[in-house]
Specification:
Layout: H1 15-46, H2 56-72, H3 77-103
Length: 104
C-alpha cells in the first residue's frame, strides 16, 4: 500500500488534511534532525579537543541565521530563535557525549 503525499497547506480543506500534512512534515523534520546530529557526530570525531566542542560565536551565528531566514519567510523570528537555541544546545550536549564516547 502506497502512502499518499499530504496536501500543501493552501490546498487543505479539512482538519484531516491538516493533520496529515503536519504528521508528514514532522517525519521529514525528524529525518533532517537525524542528518544534523550525524554532523554533530562528525564534529565530535574531527575536533581535536573537548574545549573545541562549545563555540559561542558559532552558536550565535547559527541562531541569528535561522531567525533571519525565518523572518524572510514570514515566520515568527522569536519563536524560531527559541527553537534553534534549544536545538543548538541539545546538539552541543550530544556532541560532548559523542566526543567522550569516541575517546573512552
Amino acid at each position: 500500500m502506497t502512502e499518499l503525499q499530504a496536501k500543501i497547506p493552501d490546498d487543505c480543506q479539512t482538519m484531516r488534511d491538516v493533520r496529515a500534512g503536519v504528521d508528514e512534515t514532522d517525519r521529514a523534520l525528524v529525518a533532517l534532525l537525524e542528518r544534523r546530529f550525524g554532523y554533530m557526530r562528525a564534529a565530535a570525531r574531527i575536533k581535536p579537543s573537548r574545549d573545541a566542542v562549545r563555540d559561542e560565536e558559532r552558536k550565535a551565528s547559527v541562531i541569528a541565521a535561522a531567525r533571519a531566514d525565518a523572518e524572510a519567510r514570514g515566520l515568527p523570528g522569536q519563536v524560531v530563535e527559541d527553537i534553534w537555541d534549544r536545538l543548538v544546545e541539545g546538539s552541543i550536549a550530544y556532541e560532548f557525549k559523542e566526543w567522550d564516547r569516541i575517546r573512552d
